[in-house]
Design goal:
Distance between the termini: 9 Å
Order of helices and strands: HEEH
Radius of gyration: 13 Å
Shape: globular
Strand order of the largest sheet: 1-2
Number of domains: 1
Helix content: 10-25%
Number of strands: 2
Number of helices: 2
Mean pLDDT: 81
């Protein structure tokens, strides 16, 4: 599966705040759809099942295969 991932140093704190993580806690995951709308945020570790539950409905043309 190909998707963008952001890895940042101190600049990441600003980015996290801009995307809803006011406390800048980690881990923090943001799921953004094709229209750049925030669909879901996680302030905890996430599982494969969490990811599939959110992403599968967003993929109207594709099939997700996670290994």
């Amino acid at each position: 599966m190909q998707y963008p991932i952001l890895l940042a140093e101190l600049e990441g704190l600003t980015i996290m705040r801009e995307h809803g993580n006011q406390l800048t806690t980690l881990p923090y995951t943001v799921v953004i759809d094709r229209d750049q709308k925030i669909i879901k945020t996680f302030r905890t570790e996430i599982t494969k099942e969490d990811v599939l539950e959110i992403i599968q409905p967003l993929l109207s043309d594709s099939v997700v295969v996670m290994r």
